[in-house]
Amino acid sequence: MSKKPFSLQTSLIHSHGFDKETGAVSTPLHHATTFHQQDFDQYGTYDYSRSGNPTRETVEETIAELEGGVRGFAFSSGMAAISTSFLLLSSGDHVLVSEEVYGGTYRMITEVLTKFGIEYSFVNMKDLHEVACSIKHNTKVIYMETPSNPLLNITDIEGVVKLAKANGCLTFLDNTFMTPLLQRPISLGVDVVLHSATKFLAGHSDVLAGLAVTGNEEIAGKLAFLQNSFGAVLGAQDCWLLLRGLKTLHVRLKESSESAYKIAAFLEKRSEVEEVYYPGLSYHPGREIQVRQAEGPGAVLSFRLKGEEEAKQLIQNVNIPVFAVSLGAVESILSYPSRMSHASMPKAERERRGITDGLLRLSVGLENVDELIKDLQNGLDSIQKINRKNVINL
Known about the structure:
single chain, 2 domains, 14 helices
């Protein structure tokens, strides 16, 4: 993998260069599943597309360069990347997990890994003392998600890495919300960085993809073996779409992040909103750490209304954001975590983590921010009208 002395902004455009054979500035799309071998005794670089594909290789080289790792791996989904990485564990091992973790990761850990004799504990990853006290003799992986989904809590990455190294543990980190443009965990000592590339990296709600990156050659060798063995690789067409999406990541994320800050500032002034969760706000409890370890607060925020009825009222009275799962797209996406991203988590567990029935998550897209704010204002005004009507009826 070539290392170019360019900014990440420039690398996003030119990291995979042009095709050496034709000069094409768009990466060739290799649909082939099998490759002719010229020599009976010595096979070429590619033989079968599960083991290696030229288009997928470009994606993997690109994400490794952007994250500052030695090798990247492209998978068929974010959960495929996470699940394959967990195959580094063995029966009897223990994994320590941020208590506020994506619902799919929660399900994988609690309902799948346990079938293979892998133990787990959830911990408040914001509290380094609690993390230290929760490490067991058989803890092999500490799994972080920062900012966390959906409450945007911040973990001190370097602090956790120090604890992990002192106890012989690996560290995994889901970097989906930040992308390598805003946060580069490998430079902070993290062993495996994970992405749902479906989100900001691809950015157009049309690609399902996952990525893993490591800066450790030994881990890279193990992940390569697992990727080939498990086989949940990213198809060539989706690799090509992901590469195209990456080229505009910088401008998309910059615009969306600026809009997210303006929307968060608007929401915190509304009486219908009980709390706003966004690490760009001055009072966010993790803001100091976020400023130290990341280049910005990102484009995702959450806010809490009184309850389910208020959330339903808002959703029914806004027109611009799509009401859907996922995030990180050109269109703004308004999600209801308790029934969407964290539906697989039991209600008691959700509420204990603060994922209540009044919580909404907003991934800010590229629409005009003033129009987005006006739209949200209309939705919040509708809650006010209903509340007044209820008071009159009483």
